[in-house]
Amino acid sequence: MKYYIFIPFFFHLLFFSCSSLSEKKLEECIANAGNNKPEILTVLKHYKDSTLKLEAARFLLENMPGHYAIDSNLINHLKPYYIKHRAISEKYHWDVYNHQWIHSIDSLRDSYSSDFFHESQHTVQADIENIKANWLIKQIELAFDAWQTNSYTQNISFKEFCEYILPYRTQDGLILDNAREVFFYRHRNFFNDSSIHFQERIDSLLSKYQTINHSNFAAINTPIYSISTLELIKRGLCEHKCWFNATLLTTMGIPTVIDFVPAWGNRNSGHSWNAIVLNGETYPFEPFWDEDPWKYKNLYNNKTFDLKWGKFRLPKIYRHTYSYHLEDLLSITK
Fold this sequence. Notes:
There is one protein chain. The protein has helices spanning 2-32, 37-46, 51-62, 72-77, 79-91, 99-110, 127-130, 133-149, 158-164, 179-186, 198-206, 227-233, 238-251, 296-299, 326-330; strands spanning 68-70, 124-126, 213-214, 235-236, 256-261, 271-278, 281-285, 305-306, 310-311, 318-320. It is of the alpha+beta class. It has one domain (15-330). A hairpin with a 3-residue loop joins strand 8 (305-306) and strand 9. Helix 2 runs antiparallel to helix 3, helix 2 packs parallel to helix 8 (133-149) and helix 5 (79-91) runs antiparallel to helix 6 (99-110). It is globular. The protein starts with a helix and ends with a helix. 29% of the residues are buried. The model is unreliable at 1-7 and 9-18 (pLDDT under 50).
């Protein structure tokens, strides 16, 4: 008889433990907001009669502490640099392998104070202390609209939606602007026909941005903290194109993540790439345009090698997420 009493009690206890944890995280969020507390409370009040959207808002708020943006004044200050950067690329027909282009871009960088090119010197703004209620509400509304109108993903779980589509930022440091709104209305209804395989539709969308290419490591530490900047200069590193792709695709309701290895197992440096998480599967693809971007599923599983890049050896793959997963860190053993 005790057995039948214990089971519901256990789940009752588990439910309230989870609820208490959620409430504690929300309280911490509000406390960390400081003078921005009224903006946070406005968001919660706005969704008080919408259970699902309130849960979505809470998900964002509970995981918001720790996320930040670079001061947008830096972007404004460097606007002349970005314009000159583009002019040089146009002069050399966007050829990243042209030695004169590389020399000119590096010289342009050297003409500016080194403080502009080191993230440690940049002023950061905590999201929780600066985010505006109207802006965050707009991001939530866009996310729900994209989820509900995307014929490939409209049936994914709410938990998956929160984890892979809802977050307003795909990388810390990016400024809080209207990039998602621009993408949403630029490509609205792009994924409303599921008769075509989702990978083909994603290829079709990404092909529209294939002129954004790798910088070939010229002016390697150029600050790029906005979608509009990358669209302007069209040159960056893998990590830049990763958050560009993730912002674009999640805005359109496609569950997209950024995976990375801090260091290869068989070569120098690390690498970042994107992946689609759908129907219980992960579909990795290279951030920059490729003739066959989906071949990397086997490459990143250490199953084969590429004729151009050779063999990859990945000791451990990590993932950037908006939400915190402390339980995963605690579960890591030597």
